[in-house]
Amino acid sequence: MTTSPAQVPAPNDFPGGRPRVVIIGSGFGGLFAARALRKAPVDVTLIGKTAQHLFQPLLYQVATGILSEGEIAPATREILRGQKNARVILGEVTEIDVAARTVSSEILGRKTVHPYDELIVAAGAGQSYFGNDQFAEFAPGMKSIDDALELRGRIFGAFELAEIAHDQAEIDRLLTFVVVGAGPTGVEMAGQIAELARRTLRRDFRNINPTGARVILLDAAPAVLPSFGKKLGDRARRQLNEIGVDVQLGAMVTGVDADGLEVKDTDGTVRRIQAATKIWAAGVQASELGRMLGEQTGAEVDRAGRISVEPDLTLPEHPEIHVVGDMMALSKLPGVAQVAIQGGRYAAEAIQRRVTGKKPQDPFHYSDKGSMATISRFSAVADIGPFKFSGFIAWVLWLVVHLMYIVGFKSRVTTVLHWMVSFLGRGRSERVATQQQVYGRLALEQLGPNWEVSKTGGPKNTDPGDEDITQRESA
Ligand SMILES: Cc1cc2nc3c(=O)[nH]c(=O)nc-3n(C[C@H](O)[C@H](O)[C@H](O)COP(=O)(O)OP(=O)(O)OC[C@H]3O[C@@H](n4cnc5c(N)ncnc54)[C@H](O)[C@@H]3O)c2cc1C
After folding, report:
1. How far is the CA of 340 from the centre of ligand 1 (A)?
2. What is the main EC category here (predicted)?
3. 3-class DSSP state for residue 216?
């Protein structure tokens, strides 16, 4: 279905007061857009499915016990505390009505409707299992704090179970870790599991030898870190091999179960790997909201769920809807933090100009600041413009850049301390894993979606149908 083109209200055309900007998502795109609007004469409502701003690039360090979840996920409310024109709403956006210009969000059965004059959609992407969603039960992805904590429990738990196992085949299965996907996330994850086994846990067990743990990095593609080019990809592969990671390329995962994986090699051979811990770091699928917007506006949505945007990051004939970050498709831009940050700032500037009557900006131009991936402590690869680094220099660069983008002074200080513990010493300060973290996701899935609402009492004395907590009419 398509809608008739919406009119963008003129600067003095907002009957309810200042223009209302609704932002969906508290990730890189959403948060940086909200902050860029701090001086704009608008009221900003940022709606997030989680109460935090998550720094996804360091999730693997939470999963492997280096950092705590708080360090990479400060509360969005706290970050925007001093920004008087912004408020934060916790809730999952379930509906966008383009014609009525409203966004509905829900949390534990409570529904809220938010009218907007300008909408920034930055809901990011989730894991894609390429049509094999059943793999998720045994091979969690790496997209959220929940994922990272579940993986932490599974990784450390596998060593514990191996310590009390008697059968050598079972010990081998428990001490085999398979990471699927040789992009930056997979490479970093595999490197850190190898370091955990060989450095941190080396002396912690009596019956098993953790240094003998097998870490396998699998990918159907023929290269490691393909987006970094052949030279850096080959170096990364060599560095992974040096720390004991078994890199298997041209290997497509065709089955995953509790005990291991089935893999098909390029020559057609099908083989099995017995492994208790499987981690899925391959493929992304943009938020469902992209498809919802596509159906209402006629904008094209690609196979990965990304919605095509105009050169100014708005939807065709809907200049009031801006889509940024991992959800947008524009000139094959990659799904990386800088695209989301720059897109969020650009959308904010477009809104600011519109409401203050200034002329529009030039089309969005992405300034590529390069890519980096760590392999292990003191070792990384970095691809910055014409420069390609690897080894210690790349690692120092990686350290500095990541520290710069961690939000909040407190988080930066504690992150540096934890890095010193893990990289200068052998320790990991965050080894706590609870049963809830390991089993919670699967248990909730079995209980079904209505369980959470019923156990938390559901909405009280509200009509969940169409509450508008802004108490203002839509412009
Ligand atoms: C493990 C991992 C490692 C990465 N490493 C790097 C790296 O080293 N360098 C790099 O540049 N990039 C990296 N990336 C990619 C980078 O994190 C993303 O490109 C970036 O986060 C995209 O920003 P975004 O704002 O589009 O989405 P996100 O940052 O994912 O934010 C989306 C937000 O929307 C919220 N949301 C989703 N659906 C809804 C809904 N229905 N209602 C309300 N809120 C919703 C989410 O809770 C989240 O707050 C990595 C990603 C992952 C997963």
Report:
1. 8
2. oxidoreductase
3. strand
User: What pLDDT, on the 0 to 100 scale, is given for residue 466?
Assistant: 47
Instruction: Give the pLDDT score at 163.
Output: 98
CA dihedral 128, 120, 337, 303 (to 10 degrees): 30
In the chain, the domains with their CATH numbers are 133-282+370-424 (3.50.50.100)
Whole-number Å distance between alpha carbons of 120 and 5? 17
- Of 134, 247, 108, which Cα lies nearest the Cα of 190? 247
CB of 93 closer than 6 angstroms to any ligand 1 atom: yes
Q: Which residues of the chain have pLDDT under 70?
A: 1-16, 453-475
Q: What is the pLDDT of residue 445?
A: 83
Establish how many alpha carbons lie within 13 A of residue 356's alpha carbon, considering only the half-sphere containing its beta carbon.
13
Alpha-carbon gap, residue 267 to 246, rounded angstroms: 19
- Active-site option among 118, 150, 188, 430: 188
Q: Residues, the chain, total?
A: 475
Q: What pLDDT score was predicted for residue 456?
A: 67
Give ∠ CA 350-120-109 in degrees, rounded to 5.
160
Identify whether the C-beta of residue 396 lies closer than 8 Å to the C-beta of residue 418: no
In the prediction, which pLDDT does 247 show? Answer: 98
Tokens 């091999």 correspond to: 241
| Cβ–ligand 1 contact at 25 (below 6 Å) | yes
Say which amino acid occupies 303: R
Distance CA 359, CA 408 (A): 34
Residue nearest to atom 15 of ligand 1 (CA): 336
